Amino acid sequence: MAEIKAFRGYRFSLGKPDDLGAYCAPPYDMLDDAMVDALYGKHPNNVVRITQNKREAADTVNKDRHVRAGKFLSDWIGASVIKRDEADSVYIYRQQFSAPGDDGRPVARERIGVCALVKLVDFDEGIVLPHEYTLSGPKQDRYELMETTLANTGQIFGLAADDDGELYKLIRSIMSSSPLAGSFVDENDVAHSLYVCSDVGLINLTKGMMSTRSILIADGHHRYETALRFYRDKGNEAFSHVMMTLVSMADPGLIIRPFHRLVRRTDQGVSVGNMLDELAKYFDVKRIDKASADGVYKALSARGSAEMVYWDCASGDIYDLRLNDGGETYLAGVMPEQSDKWKRLDVSKINCVIINGILSLPLDGRVLHDIVHYVNDAVAGAERLAAAEKGYYYGGFFIRPVSIGVVSDTVRGGERMPQKSTNFYPKLYSGLVINKPDLEPL
Questions:
Q1: CA gap 271, 278 in Å, rounded
Q2: CA distance 396 to 385
Q3: pTM > 0.90
Q4: Residue 190 has pLDDT above 80, yes or no
Q5: Positions of E strands within 53-190
Q6: Rounded Cα–Cα distance for residues 15 and 20 (Å)
Q7: Cα–Cα distance between 170 and 324 in angstroms, integer?
Q8: Cα(292)–Cα(230) distance, integer angstroms
Q9: CA nearest 52: which of 149, 135, 185?
Q10: Contact 215, 2 (CB under 8 A)
Q11: Cβ atoms within 10 Å, residue 313
Q12: Separation between Cα atoms, residue 126 and residue 228, nearest integer Å
């Protein structure tokens, strides 16, 4: 199955381990302009100058900013701002954070992964599997960055099958026997720590264990597909592997957050007067209470029985939505290329029934991002609905997170998850370690 190997990673030279935070940044696709500006100001050698270099007025094409990124990386290596490890190693990436438990109170969590190089293979080989589709624009952008840096500068987040839990135990044992190389706490109070393992015996154990397992990409689909294309275009074995942090599917700290959907009124598609009347054609609609963040949480918690919660802006109430016979009939007749299980995912119900069926809008990425505002936190979503100008939103659809088992079963069944189905938390930061093969520029 998956072929992995150790590598001599490049890491920032630190005075002490907890200096690492000055150099690290969230993944490139999580950064807006304000965040990029803040990271530029945080430290002159912050990795954001490589992963998401700022556009400048003199730029004529997008690649110009990646050329600057390549020069930054080259200069930092030349000045020993970044140094290459002396021995082939694997790296343990530990994240400690809090997430709500069943009662809504914060619970301390920990997630650990092993960072190594993974052999690039086509998805149809069934060794590395995607769970979502990609867009051509981001892939071209990342390709240009690879051309100028000849490096993997950000982490791909992979989930390794681990039915017996042995991989999780091995990762933990490697971490406990390895020195701490760097640590920091980010603005969301997530503690990031990196450990370096050059023990040949432990590395070989990891390689052997992964050779019987497949990998599901959680985050980083664009970077994986870009690395595969780059390898094939260049025909150079130095680029046959890509850097990836592998987390066991048995890791108790593996958290998936839902993307709640706030649906706004628009002049596109069909204008609906009373959304509740339209929903009643497809769902059994049962009033729960007056709309509040606490009411949404209670309805979705273990103490509640709601299947999907709808916050109706017109009435100011929240409702439990359950697919009725009309909804069942509608789903059975749409998207025949998708399985019955896929169409009954909560996100599929929202997309197929509300966006496509009620509002008569196509299910493409542009329309979905224009009509739907996505939020991870139910409280934040509720506050946004409550503060919105009257008539701006129809309302919000609040759902439970999908399980890793459902994601895995969907992918192994030959399908990919609907857009914005999963939000793996927390994200893997860039800058802890970089993979750059030792060769001359192509």
A1: 11
A2: 7
A3: yes
A4: yes
A5: 82-84, 90-100, 106-119, 128-129, 156-160, 180-185
A6: 9
A7: 47
A8: 49
A9: 149
A10: yes
A11: 22
A12: 15
Other Cβ atoms less than 10 A from the Cβ of 317: the count is: 18
Peptide bond into 426 cis (omega under 30): yes
Partnered with residue 320 across adjacent β-strands are: 286, 309
Q: Which residue has the tokens 């696709």?
A: 29
Rounded to the nearest 5°, which phi and psi values hold at 294? -65, -40
pLDDT of residue 424: 96
Identity of the residue numbered 178: S
Q: What is the pLDDT of residue 365?
A: 66
How many angstroms separate the CA atoms of 396 and 370, rounded?
A: 15
Q: Which residues contact 423 (CB under 8 A, 6 or more apart)?
A: 256, 257, 258, 259, 376
> Which of the four pLDDT bands, split at 50, 70 and 90, describes residue 304?
low
442 in Cβ contact with 157 (< 8 Å): no
The region that residue 219 occupies, defined by phi over 0 for left and psi between -120 and 50 for alpha, beta otherwise, is: beta
Query: pLDDT by residue (tens digit) across 71-97?
Result: 999 999 999 999 999 999 999 999 999
Name the token pair of 194: 């990196």
Identity of the residue numbered 253: G
% pLDDT > 70, the chain: 97
Report the alpha-carbon distance of residue 252 to residue 421 in Å, rounded: 20
